[in-house]
Amino acid sequence: MKVYKPWSLSLFFIFTAGCQFLPWNNPCSSDYTLKEVKEGLAIQIYVENNPEKALSHFFISMLSALSGQKNTEKAFESEIEPIVKKLELKDVSKPTKKSEKEYMCSAVFEYEGQKRVVEYTVKEIHSGKEKLYKVEIIDTNKVE
Fold first, then answer.
1. For 77-93, what is the mean pLDDT?
2. Of 94, 96, 77, whose CA–CA distance to 38 is shortest?
3. Residue 16 has what pLDDT?
């Protein structure tokens, strides 16, 4: 019979509690989550830099949706792609639990020498064996 010392059990509990959000378990920094956040930030930067073009893309997509055409999304994605490539991830926060399986997160990106903080929520959605995430950007701020 093996006797466990109380301090060894407390170390075990501290270790398991600390492992909850290791980088590979962090919903804030999953590849899918960061891809979605990066694309959302790229759209915002595009709209800030090209408001007229963004508005025309919006109207074209509305008209094409009514007529059943689906080629307008690719044109918009090609306009945003260079911005996505220039966005560089600098930091990702640890998740703060908002509710059951929903977390508040923030990430810092740099674009052309200017840092931007993006606050977003991540909600876990289970689909069979896979763990999927629904990402919603709440706010973006420029860092001076």
1. 93
2. 77
3. 40
Q: Are 97 and 103 in contact (CB under 8 A)?
A: yes
CA distance 144 to 140: 13
Q: How many CB atoms lie within 10 A of CB 127?
A: 7
> Two tokens at 45?
């930067």
Q: Which residues contact 35 (CB under 8 A, 6 or more apart)?
A: none
The structural domains of the chain, with segments of one domain joined by +, span: 22-143
Tokens representing 46 are 């595009």
**Shortest CA distance to 112 belongs to which of 55, 62, 45, 32?**
45
Please tell me the distance from the alpha carbon of residue 23 to that of residue 90, in angstroms, as a whole number: 15
Distances (CA, A) of 138 to 16, 30, 43, 68, 99: 31, 18, 14, 31, 16
pLDDT exceeds cutoff 80 at 9: no
What burial letters (b/e) apply to 87-123, b meaning 16+ CB within 10 Å? beeeebbebeeeeeeebbbbbebebeeeebbbebbbb
What pTM was estimated for this model as a whole? 0.74
